[in-house]
Amino acid sequence: MEPTTQEYVERVRALLEAGDSDALAAFLAEVHPADIADVAQELDGEEQVAVLKLLDTERAAEVLTEIDRHSGQALLQLLTARDVVSLLGEMPSDDAADFMSTLPPETTERVEALMPEAEREQLQELMEFDEESAGGIMAVEYVAVPEAATIRDAIHMARDRADDIEDLQKIFVVDGTGVLVGDLGVLDLIVNSRSLPVSEVMNRNVLSVPVDMDQEEVAMLFGKYDVLTLPVIDALGRLVGRITVDDIIDVMEEEASEDIAYIAGTSEEELGEPSVFKVSRTRLPWLITGLVGQICAALVMSRHEASLRTYVVLAFFVPLIVGTAGAIGIQAAVVVVREIALGQIDIKRMGRRLMKELQVAALNGMALGVVLFFIVLAWLHEPGLGLLLWSSLMIVIFVAAFIGASVPLLFQRWRIDPAIATGPFIAVVNDVIGLTIYLSMARAYLSRLL
Amino acid sequence: MEPTTQEYVERVRALLEAGDSDALAAFLAEVHPADIADVAQELDGEEQVAVLKLLDTERAAEVLTEIDRHSGQALLQLLTARDVVSLLGEMPSDDAADFMSTLPPETTERVEALMPEAEREQLQELMEFDEESAGGIMAVEYVAVPEAATIRDAIHMARDRADDIEDLQKIFVVDGTGVLVGDLGVLDLIVNSRSLPVSEVMNRNVLSVPVDMDQEEVAMLFGKYDVLTLPVIDALGRLVGRITVDDIIDVMEEEASEDIAYIAGTSEEELGEPSVFKVSRTRLPWLITGLVGQICAALVMSRHEASLRTYVVLAFFVPLIVGTAGAIGIQAAVVVVREIALGQIDIKRMGRRLMKELQVAALNGMALGVVLFFIVLAWLHEPGLGLLLWSSLMIVIFVAAFIGASVPLLFQRWRIDPAIATGPFIAVVNDVIGLTIYLSMARAYLSRLL
């Protein structure tokens, strides 16, 4: 098997300490840039620079785009503006724009001053798009030929750009005004006679995405149509860029991290964040929201102080009621949000989806209620309390499922990210409502009893 | 913009009812198979068959692979074994194997009896691999040339298979025993002279994955190395298949769904499942686990009955203690699990990662404790109770963070899926432990007071 990152790191450190640049350069030449980036993440800033200087600019640029933003901070401080400009020149435009956006503002200014004008303008244009839109993830390196071109012309264009575009998939065909009218695969260049015009070979039913489409939607289209690359068009239908599926993999990881972070009550940004203070600051607002909600739960309980005093056993089941309400709510919310994310929910049929969730809740409420009834009977020998718990648990479960499923559906309709509805906010709402139901039913039960 | 699925469905239904097969066939010819699949999911079995019969076999096969398993059940009942055989013949081998595995056993037998022997053997071999391994997701359609071949030979091979392999990326080069020794891109076929031997052009540092590698690891390699296709090799290094990035997108969706389902206490399998009973059955075991845990919480509370009787205010803050313990535990667990999934945690440095989590817990425990202290002071004017809550909340948070972060790390070391540790089981453990800490501290506090 391949050596592990740790083995690479030890090797690189040993060669750095021995000061044997030639041996280190020879060693690094055999390692994939993505692996060098993994190694670099374990090194300090000085060591990172020493490693980068031993690579040719193209490979150094690849390493730089792979290092994550947290580990690259020290390195950025040590690079001169001139270094950055030459590295940017070797990056695909989408990576270059991403990289620029991680630079501190004063470096950005110095870098822009040193850049060739055409390159600078291109980058600035790219950086103006919303980071999470098709424009924000597209590259401007693509091969486009006019309709009148022949296969031979297209081959020449593809050859010219072979160095620039690592994984060329599609040749795009545009009309006189730059509007995208078709595409052909690289294989079409080989299979067809060189004298044929591209317009006879091209696929006219070409899929494309508008430049302002959200990246999550773009990712869904890649998944649905199983394509490796999609052209990006402006409002007039003109070709402006191209998105490849390897960028979509990053988008999908990011979106999944975002959705998962919402459930936990934190933000995707804390992943890999080394600063304890930043992590704490990211999580605290969610925790404080929860705390305030739980104070409301304490208020609800204080309003039922009399019941709790006369019949302290009621308190024993408070964790069960709030715990189950929370669990039911999160099941409903998370499943609905995931189905929305996978495009499995037709938003026009929200009612049907909600109904399914309520039916599941009715079944599970019944099942859990029975189990609870018999446990309480065996433990406390009080069938009345058992029935109270059974019935209140069923109602609590029903309401928690309703809230858990309907809030994300409503958010989706109101165009708020439904993933927010999976977080601690919904959990605490369910706690408070569940508690109110349970204690109100308990009060009614006690008033009959006494 | 493109018409919505609903608009397509209405159009198709109208044409089906009018019995106008020609118009429907003409309409369907313009629609992408993935969109036809979306439409088919809204139709009943009879209508699905009527639509499929109007497509040519190749497109019908594409539609069939895109229909999800839940919506395709009725359709499968209506297709003859002969239909299935001809559809399978048009599918890429990986899709064909997946499709076969969804058939009921008796259909499988009839289909296998009708299949050409070579095709059947190939499929059976593919189906023997673990569904979640490289072998389980690879296709056996690839272009491999011997080392001695020229670029011209490779072009001929590629042309021959152009129909079979939609998005040909790489030509693989193998030695006399079938061992993978290199690869070249389709563009290399165009850029180089046709008389050159492939061995002079090929990349010798070819990345590959072993046939038994877990699909999640394969997905990670695609993400790391930004490749569009990877060859699959057996234990002897012989080329046996190829994985393309569009299959990886499905893997990533599946793995993200799995991880998210664990957090919610359910299974990825329920997504899109129309049967209320199956959904209920999927979720119930997790809920029962939670219920049993909450009964333990009730037992803990019953052991502190005396404290609760003398000082009922203690009960008011039970939801706060268990709610916060749960929230802190899930934050720690989910973040650690996600970092493991993204390959951001070096398992050798588990101690360091755990320490970070405890530092965050100390900060957040302090912050939440202060807030709680002042709220309690303002509400109940009891500084003693405020201090009790502050101190016990801090300890509860610290312990919950320790459990939340350490259990997934241990699971990872023991090679158990760490995602399991994000579920309701950990939440309920934290509830019970948190409650025990809180009530024990309260008892000590009361004994001093009285």
Write up this protein.
- The structure is a homodimer of 450-residue chains.
- With 450 residues, chain A is mainly α.
- Chain A contains 23 helices and 6 strands.
- In chain A, the strands form 2 sheets. The first copy, chain A, has a 3-stranded mixed beta sheet. In chain A, strands 4-5-6 form a 3-stranded mixed beta sheet.
- In chain A, strand 5 (229-233) and strand 6 form a beta hairpin.
- The longest helix of chain A has 31 residues, at 350-380.
- The model of chain A has no long low-confidence stretch (mean pLDDT 89).
- Chains A and B meet through helix 12, helix 13, helix 15, helix 16 and helix 17 of A and helix 12, helix 13, helix 15, helix 16 and helix 17 of B.
Question: How would you concisely characterize the structure shown here?
Answer:
Chain A has 450 residues and is mostly helical.
Cα shape of chain A? elongated
Strand content of chain A: 5-15%
Biggest interface between protein chains, with counts per chain? A-B, 113 and 114 residues
What's the main sheet of chain A like?
3 strands, mixed
If you average the pLDDT of chain A, what whole number results? 89
Order of helices and strands of chain A: HHHHHHHHHHHEHEEHHEHEEHHHHHHHH
Strand order of the largest sheet of chain A: 1-2-3
Helix content of chain A: 55-70%
Cα separation of the termini of chain A: 75 Å
Radius of gyration of chain A, in Å, reads 30 Å
Instruction: Give me the number of helical elements of chain A.
Output: 23
Query: Which stretches of chain A are low in confidence, meaning pLDDT under 50 for 5 or more residues running?
Result: none
Secondary structure tally: strands of chain A: 6
Oligomer: homodimer
| SS class of chain A | mainly alpha
